[in-house]
Recover the amino acids of this structure.
């Protein structure tokens, strides 16, 4: 390839620099950063790039034009991709990439050349395919052609115009359809001739012909789970139409008769009439007491609760908080509120005084139904003094002065609560969640009665629940995750749920229950899966489990591999938020990829966009957005309660902006990068924390890891890894160096953590998510 230069204006004042000047400075900074990481001197780099030391230093300072040959030699010497240097991120696509007309990685040249890299998003490539335009220059016809050289081989194919090519002492004039193949170590150059521009393709081949080793497999893995054909007349079919392919994977899901839908009446009460003795929930208390509740039991108790709440003056639209851990009374109270029309607000028992005060006042909570366990009721009392809206305090599983005893009082009321013409349904508000954001005050995501229907695909096609089986999702009822896995979707599919009301998660305590109760499907957040693999799970009988899923945060590939090795089970990922149902997921029967969130579900229309709201090409990172131009999909929140400004921030221009960053590959799979604020910007590079965390988690002595940005005067930010070690591991400086070396070997070297800190624990939200902003 001839000396395709990236020009600069020579202006030292940064404020006067053009966008291209700034890009040169960024690339120069990346080259210097990588050189230092590889412990190479400027003299060594000058030799490797075929320029003088003085010329190299000017390039590294951004004070000289950069030509493609120089950048290409730098990429070989520094063991990175050309895209790493030019764009500041690693390419990701692994099977194919399409570049549309007028797009590509464009770089303008000082000598009348413009070229586009046609595969900048393709990783581990063994060639650089370029689309090149050489502008005709009358003066160049009488000057010597500037020659350059670089390792490898090259092929040029003319599209239009004529090109004079010089290889060593030999010259050839090429026309449309002509091509030339040569050893690019031989000095070579080219210009447009015969009075007009020349357009041609250039393929520059890697000198070794071997791709850089992959970080992790990115291949399709056949699902080992199957979708059982369900021919029974299920109640959900009155409200949901599904089209499946030959493998049982849904290709379309549409909703009907939703305007009057109320889950408590239309599903629970109908199931109680249809199959009154069918198991709805198997509940195990912390003292191992077993309780089995049928749908007839659930209907009866929820009606009693609706009447009980009504007797207290609680009415449609009132906000009632439920802080009930995993107590079975949560289901009674939740469905009672659903029937009455009061808005339920599930919350965790880990909240303290200021948390309750903020929630009570921001949502205007009129009543709380609270566990008697621990210090929670006391924290409520401290907050209640500053919350005038709170009128009723109701205690569960105990008694307390100033509190109404739920277990004693609700059973005194009628077990009949008939549906009326004005009963809540459809677009009426049913449920609110305080979001578990990793920074700032939580917002209140409001959902209507259609939300319950939106979890159908979550349960049937992701959890793969069995109407005759038993599903376990590990989650406190204070989180949206419990709605995903403990209530709406499972009962829509007429499957029973398994609930263990433990105080603290203990792998050795819960693992024997899989065999004892014949649990068939299982979902847990990655945090708990990591705890499970630290236990010797191979000694437990998990043969009843036919399907496993995870969500809540990204799953490290190492956890997947270890679980599959020990049990033969594949852990299937999905993605959603408190504001939604499952947006992206690996559906049952469809192939998946380790580490990927999956593909867009049939319920949602999703894009990845840049900060200006424009869709990004495959392989490039951007924000996940949901298209709401034709209305919100069933299950998406209606907005943030009493906060139109926050709602507008995320819901505008026809899209709901999730605040989560990802990229999509050529097979339509989405790969999580982090929250918008989590992306690390170091020396012009954009680095996602999850990739680094996944590599570090491969090390056997690492229990937990959180990667964040640390400020740096020179680089802006640097990568920092905060690590919790497995018990018994000594936190030494040598161990830090081992971790850094391992990351350098497994990723592009600029991604390694310059700072490694060992910690006893990582800061987390009350829902268990790592708070990177506090690392």
């Amino acid at each position: 390839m001839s000396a395709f230069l990236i020009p600069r204006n020579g202006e030292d004042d940064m404020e006067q620099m053009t966008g291209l000047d700034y890009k040169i400075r960024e690339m120069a900074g990346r080259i210097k950063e990588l050189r230092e990481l590889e412990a190479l001197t400027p003299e060594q780099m000058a030799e490797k790039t075929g320029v003088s030391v003085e010329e190299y230093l000017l390039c590294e300072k951004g004070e000289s034009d950069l030509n493609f040959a120089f950048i290409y030699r730098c990429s070989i010497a520094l063991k990175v991709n050309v895209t790493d240097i030019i764009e500041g991120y690693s390419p990701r696509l692994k099977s194919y990439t399409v570049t549309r007309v007028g797009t590509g990685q464009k770089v303008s040249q000082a000598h009348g050349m413009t070229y586009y890299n046609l595969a900048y998003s393709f990783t581990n490539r063994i060639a650089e395919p370029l689309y090149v335009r050489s502008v005709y220059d009358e003066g160049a016809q009488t000057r010597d052609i500037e020659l350059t050289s670089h390792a490898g081989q090259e092929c040029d194919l003319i599209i239009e115009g004529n090109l004079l090519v010089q290889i060593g002492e030999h010259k050839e004039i090429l026309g449309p359809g002509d091509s030339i193949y040569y050893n690019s170590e031989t000095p070579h150059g080219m210009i447009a001739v015969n009075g007009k521009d020349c357009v041609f393709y250039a393929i520059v081949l890697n000198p070794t012909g071997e791709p850089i080793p992959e970080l992790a497999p990115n291949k399709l893995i056949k699902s080992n789970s199957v979708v059982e054909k369900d021919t029974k007349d299920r109640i959900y079919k009155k409200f949901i139409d599904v089209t499946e392919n030959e493998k049982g994977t849904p290709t379309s899901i549409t909703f009907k008769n939703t305007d009057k839908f109320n889950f408590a009446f239309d599903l629970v009460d109908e199931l109680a009439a249809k199959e009154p003795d069918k198991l709805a929930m198997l509940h195990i208390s912390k003292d191992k007491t077993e309780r089995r509740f049928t749908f007839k039991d659930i209907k009866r108790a929820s009606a009693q609760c609706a009447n009980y709440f009504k007797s207290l003056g609680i009415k449609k639209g009132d906000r009632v908080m439920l802080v009930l851990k995993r107590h079975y009374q949560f289901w009674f109270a939740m469905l009672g509120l659903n029937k009455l029309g009061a808005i339920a607000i599930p919350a965790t028992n880990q909240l303290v005084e200021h948390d309750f005060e903020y929630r009570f006042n921001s949502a205007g909570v009129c009543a709380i139904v609270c566990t008697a366990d621990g210090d929670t009721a006391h924290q409520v009392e401290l907050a209640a003094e500053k919350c005038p809206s709170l009128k009723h305090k109701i205690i569960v599983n105990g008694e307390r002065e100033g509190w109404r005893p739920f277990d004693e009082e609700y059973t005194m009321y009628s077990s009949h609560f008939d549906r009326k013409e004005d009963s809540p349904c459809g677009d009426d508000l049913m449920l609110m969640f305080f979001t578990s954001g990793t920074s700032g005050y939580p917002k209140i995501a409001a959902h209507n009665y259609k939300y319950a229907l939106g979890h159908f695909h979550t349960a049937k096609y992701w959890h793969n629940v069995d109407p005759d089986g038993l599903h376990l999702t590990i989650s406190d009822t204070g989180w949206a995750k419990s709605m995903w896995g403990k209530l709406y979707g499972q009962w829509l599919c007429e499957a029973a749920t398994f609930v263990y009301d433990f105080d603290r998660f203990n792998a050795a305590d819960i693992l024997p229950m899989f065999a004892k109760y014949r649990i068939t499907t299982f979902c847990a957040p990655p945090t708990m899966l990591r705890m499970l693999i630290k236990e010797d799970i191979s000694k437990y009988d998990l043969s009843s489990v036919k399907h496993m899923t995870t969500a809540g945060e990204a799953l490290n590939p190492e956890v997947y591999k270890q679980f599959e090795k020990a049990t033969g089970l594949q852990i299937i990922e999905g993605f959603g938020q408190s504001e939604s149902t499952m947006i992206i997921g690996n559906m049952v029967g469809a192939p998946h990829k380790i580490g990927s969130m999956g593909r867009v579900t049939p319920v949602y229309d999703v894009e990845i966009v840049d900060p200006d709201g424009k869709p990004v090409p495959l392989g490039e990172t951007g924000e996940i957005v949901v298209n709401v131009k034709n209305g919100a999909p069933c299950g998406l929140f209606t907005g943030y309660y009493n906060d139109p400004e926050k709602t507008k921030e995320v819901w505008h221009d026809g899209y709901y902006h999730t605040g989560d960053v990802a990229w999509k590959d050529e097979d339509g799979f989405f790969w999580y990068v982090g929250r918008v604020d989590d992306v690390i910007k170091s020396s012009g590079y954009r680095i996602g924390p999850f990739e680094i965390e996944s590599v570090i988690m491969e090390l056997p002595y690492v229990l937990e890891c959180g990667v964040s940005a640390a400020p740096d005067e020179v680089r802006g930010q640097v990568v920092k890894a905060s690590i919790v070690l497995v018990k018994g591991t000594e936190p030494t400086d040598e161990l830090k160096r081992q971790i850094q070396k391992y990351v350098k070997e497994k990723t592009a070297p600029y991604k390694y953590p310059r700072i490694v800190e060992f910690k006893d624990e990582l800061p987390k939200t009350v829902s268990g998510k790592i708070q990177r902003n506090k690392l």
